[in-house]
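Can't paste images in this forum, so I'm doing it all in text. The chain is below; anyone willing to post the predicted structure tokens underneath?
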Amino acid sequence: MFSTLLQVLAGIIPPTHGTIKYFNEGPIDDDDLFRQLTFVAPYMELIEEFTLKEALDFHISFKPLKVGISKKDFYEICYLKDNLNKKVGAFSSGMKQRFKLGLAILSDSQVLLLDEPTSNLDEQGRDWYQNQIKAFSDDRIIVVSSNDPFEYSFCNHHIDITKFKASKWYMRLLCFLMVLVGIKAMAFHSPISSETGYVFIENKGQ
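Text version of the structure:
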């Protein structure tokens, strides 16, 4: 359920009912949404025919790395500097997940959506994940979907989605999450409960 919710918020799949509107200084066009957020999930595929260098170049042609992070820095941070000309399809599952996390965390985006982020990572990789989150979490919003407390231990707010079974309460949860992801503000209309909520928050870099 929560994985689907993250995909809807990320614009990957459309909502069954209603609409989602995103705001920063003003309304964000759907075609520009990808510049505002990054999304990682174990079921997301990489282009395996690309080499590591080609894959990173392709990614940053759409979404640049964070200010101060060079391509060389990226390779070193992700422990992939010896694999520049290796095809992504030949990577181990752990290398692929580390590469996907690196693309998300080190990209210049204000919202980071993580679905089971340490899947396919060993203990060293899980520690690496925590270190990167701590290093690059300033001035951005992070939402984690997980059953593993380790993956969201740094989060300031925890929501147990199993407590929101009735549609009315589920829609209120959805509205709350949209506010968190909305950077400054988000409007939400619930076709199930016939309620409309407009909630505004200031971006405090949390």
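Confidence is low (pLDDT under 50) at residues 181-206. The longest helix spans residues 167-181.
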